[in-house]
Design brief:
Elements: E1 10-16, H1 23-31, E2 38-45, H2 51-61, E3 65-70, H3 75-85, E4 90-93, E5 99-100, H4 104-114, E6 118-128, H5 135-146, H6 150-155, E7 169-171, H7 173-178, H8 188-198, E8 202-214, H9 220-223, H10 229-247, E9 253-257, H11 261-268, E10 277-281, E11 291-292, E12 295-298, E13 309-313, H12 318-330, E14 339-341
Parallel strand pairs: 1-2, 1-4, 2-3, 6-8, 9-10, 9-13, 10-12, 13-14
Antiparallel strand pairs: 4-7, 5-8, 6-7, 11-12
Length: about 350
């Protein structure tokens, strides 16, 4: 007979602030998990509505729910407080406006137990919003759901955040080995993924839809400057530069696909991290043959030989992105060895 564990297998960490309208649904979705060996660590980041009263009622009826009340310091502080207080071997993320499907924890724990080399596992998510009013966000969800294998996640990490934050479950040892969430003018989850991936952490995603990711008007990604588009590009530039320094010999030139002003501005952020762009690639006849920022613009067929050049594609359009991939592969280039798609 299996002995009772002194510590839970999974700690679900849920930071929140003024979540009275949604927290009951979120807590209930954890309580209905088929895996019962969990604790829910809710970090109340200075709520001023009735969130605390709702949580207190749940905690009185379920000892697996622990509530930490802290002064208002923001999501990063709340996340780190929750992880520090967690007792589980695995840490699962959850937000107060989302819903975990019943099999979520069981499926994710089983995956990590069977794949010792993997440190973090996510899952496909259902978009809980209006696909007409929030078409861009819905497409982002579809894109993240398409990235399942560790290789797909690693290769696409410089396009956009490849994981839905509240969908992940990871080994708590990752925090001990590589650090937890960091404060800064960047999205805290994306920074964590990029830092851990740069350290060699393997990440995977289950194809099953195990979380509903609600798209509410007040979510941080819609109203906080840390989640602005330029904050993403600034963050990506740091880790792209780190990857290039580690993976490429200094003799190999960096060429950027896309010579339009927005692309050049985003690629220019690489210079802040010591990356020199040798030239740009474009299909616009008006740009080809000219120089921008002191470097040439060439047509794709004039790209230097593969052994002397490495390509960063900064074209953001999804359709164009795939077309550029096809063109580069047709020339014998391999993604991750001879080019990266960054967007």
């Amino acid at each position: 007979m299996r002995q009772k564990r002194e510590m839970p297998l999974v700690s679900v960490v849920m930071p929140l602030h003024n979540a009275a309208t949604t927290v009951a649904r979120a807590v209930a979705s954890v309580q209905t998990q088929t895996l019962a060996d969990w604790e829910l660590v809710v970090v109340d980041d200075g709520s001023t509505d009735t969130t605390r009263e709702i949580l207190l009622e749940y905690a009185l009826n379920d000892p697996r729910l622990r509530v930490l009340n802290i002064a208002r310091h923001g999501i990063v502080a709340a996340l780190n407080e929750g992880i520090a207080a967690a007792n589980g071997e695995f840490i699962a993320r959850m937000d107060a406006d989302d819903e975990s499907h019943p099999q979520r924890l069981a499926a994710q724990v089983e995956y990590l137990q069977k794949h010792a080399a993997c440190g973090l596992v996510s899952c496909a998510v259902a978009f809980g919003g209006d696909r007409t009013k929030s078409a861009g966000y819905a497409l982002h969800v579809d894109w993240t759901n398409s990235l399942l294998t560790p290789e797909q996640i690693a290769l696409n990490r410089f396009v956009e955040a490849p994981l839905a934050h509240p969908s992940v479950l990871f080994r708590r040892t990752l925090v001990e080995d590589h650090g937890g969430y960091r404060e800064g003018n960047f999205p805290e989850d994306y920074e964590l993924w990029l830092r851990w991936l740069d350290a060699g952490v393997e990440m995977a995603k289950l194809p099953e839809t195990l979380l509903t990711w609600h798209d509410l008007p007040g979510r941080l990604s819609r109203c906080d400057a840390r989640y602005a588009v330029e904050a993403f590009y600034q963050l990506k530039a740091k880790w792209i530069a780190a990857w290039l320094r580690r993976e490429l010999p200094p003799s190999r030139e960096i060429w950027v696909w896309g010579a339009g002003r927005p692309t050049r501005q985003r690629a220019a952020k690489l210079a802040e991290h010591g990356v020199r762009v040798a030239g740009y690639i474009d299909i616009d006849a008006k740009k080809i043959g000219h120089r921008v920022g002191g470097v040439p613009v060439v047509a794709p067929q004039k790209l230097p030989p593969v052994h002397t050049s490495f390509v960063l594609s900064y074209v953001g359009n999804r359709g164009a992105r795939e077309d550029i991939r096809r063109q580069l592969r047709a020339t014998g280039r391999s993604e991750g060895r001879d080019f990266l798609v960054c967007a």
